[in-house]
Design brief:
Elements lengths: L1 E2 L2 E2 L34 H7 L31 H9 L37 H12 L22 H9 L4 H7 L2 H9 L5 H6 L3 H12 L3 H11 L8 H18 L3 H14 L9 H11 L4 H13 L6 H11 L4 H8 L3 H6 L4 H10 L3 H11 L3 H6 L1 H10 L5 H13 L6 H10 L4 H8 L3
Antiparallel strand pairs: 1-2
Helix pairs in contact: 2-3, 4-8, 6-8, 8-9, 8-10, 10-11, 10-12, 12-13, 12-14, 13-14, 14-17, 15-17
Length: about 450
């Protein structure tokens, strides 16, 4: 405050409240800030912790659910209705059917056992089954048909190498490869002993093989003789050369109906040296190999078709039918495991006679019959042709009740399919040729 010309300062006085000031530094009297539990010794603290509760008397909710990618099946495509029925059923099994067993591709799986003692798969929650269904249905991947075979003109045989082989080295393959320096040039190329220009102009084992295949024409004996000669020398081929050579050889094997054993040996030899070559072949070559070797080695044929399906290409009907025929008589489980990889093919194209018979053979439950009938709605001609065999399968499964028969007949009627004489007689005889039943069936003929 100003008084005259001088500034007067007053000191600020605080009134004592009688309370101790707040401090954030340790004080000597810390004991009153310690909780009562902190005053216990470590032993007393440990003893104060309650024992872990015992849940041994409570049954655990443990359900073993098979991986949807490991299921062995051909006809099933699950829908929302299947999920709802399964989830709302008391048993919480697929379709609400406690007798239905989901089969596994793994032969050692307990779930795969079809004996009555085997437990059905339980889906405890709808969310689990919805997720399971999504992955399961993704195995039915969309496929494309093989591109049609384009007619190729016969190769011109007017080059100097064609003339050399035809005039002087016919059936003398080794002499031809040596005289044209094919072995030497290929060896230099693989070791980097030539320039790019020389590499383009060099006559290699690949070129010599093309010349031989051009010249042997339709001669089966020359074709087989050449394959036996070239197989030990495939090490001279480059990757692209092997792909082209396999394409030509597999096509000739189909056209000449010869060389299946040699082609199988060639594929195995290439596979031993270059693991990835076979898997990157074009679809037509894979299909030709599968078709050619299926009677000798069904497993190799299946492998070729699996590569095609993985590449979203459908094997030819002839290759599939021939493969299934080569399997012979197998049990239902074995047939199902061998054919499960063809499920996308089944949903892509109408199955042939061998394929359909094999599919019907694998069915062991009435729910699978229902799925098969639903699938066949897209092929009315096949459904009309196989209506009697489907009815016999229903009888075989012991599910030939009036309900199932009426449902099956309803599907035939809605699909504008007339009742066959064989099916008419089978159903009429089941009901002792009852006039009422015969009259109803007559309307469907």
């Amino acid at each position: 405050m100003l008084r005259g010309k001088y500034l007067v300062r007053h000191s600020i006085r605080t009134k004592s409240t009688g309370f101790s000031p707040i401090t954030f530094t340790p004080t000597a009297n810390q004991a009153r800030h310690i909780f009562e539990e902190e005053k216990l010794t470590p032993e007393e603290n440990y003893a104060a912790v309650p024992d872990k509760p015992d849940f041994s008397s409570i049954s655990k909710a443990h359900y073993r659910i098979i991986n949807p990618e490991d299921v062995a099946d051909l006809v099933t495509k699950l829908n929302t209705n299947d999920v709802l029925v399964s989830s709302l059923s008391r048993s919480r099994t697929l379709y609400g059917d406690t007798s239905y067993r989901i089969k596994s591709l793994n032969t050692k799986s307990e779930i795969n056992e079809l004996e009555p003692k085997a437990e059905p798969t339980i889906f405890p929650y709808a969310s689990i089954l919805f997720g399971w269904k999504k992955v399961y249905n993704q195995q039915i991947k969309p496929l494309q048909d093989l591109e049609p075979v384009q007619k190729t003109e016969k190769p011109r045989l007017d080059s100097k190498f064609h003339k050399l082989f035809t005039d002087s080295h016919h059936h003398k393959f080794e002499e031809f490869f040596i005289d044209t320096r094919a072995f030497r040039n290929s060896d230099l190329n693989s070791n980097g002993g030539t320039s790019l220009l020389e590499l383009r102009e060099a006559f290699t084992v690949e070129d010599a093989s093309n010349v031989v295949l051009d010249c042997i024409g339709d001669s089966k004996s020359s074709f087989l003789e050449f394959l036996n000669f070239i197989i030990p020398n495939i090490g001279y081929f480059r990757i692209e050369g092997l792909k082209h050579f396999l394409s030509r050889v597999s096509k000739l094997s189909i056209e000449l109906n010869a060389g299946a054993a040699e082609l199988k040996t060639l594929v195995e030899a290439i596979d031993a040296q270059h693991k990835k070559v076979i898997s990157i072949l074009d679809s037509r070559t894979l299909n030709n190999i599968a078709l050619a070797v299926t009677e000798l080695d069904p497993k190799l044929s299946a492998r070729m078709m699996k590569y095609m399906i993985d590449d979203s290409v459908c094997p030819s009907e002839m290759a599939v039918e021939k493969f299934i025929k080569s399997l012979g008589s197998l049990s239902r489980d074995q047939t199902l495991r061998e054919l499960t990889f063809l499920k996308p093919v089944l949903f892509h194209r109408q199955p042939g006679s061998n394929f359909f018979a094999a599919v019907l053979h694998t069915i062991t439950n009435i729910n699978e019959v229902n799925k098969l009938v639903i699938f066949l709605k897209r092929y009315p001609g096949l459904l009309a042709q196989e209506q009697t065999s489907i009815y016999k399968k229903i009888e075989e499964l012991g599910a030939c009740t009036s309900l199932y028969i009426s449902q099956f007949l309803k599907v035939l009627k809605t699909s504008d399919i007339k009742l066959s004489n064989d099916l008419f007689q089978a159903i009429a005889s089941k009901y002792d040729n009852s006039p009422r039943i015969v009259a109803a069936l007559s309307q469907l003929i």
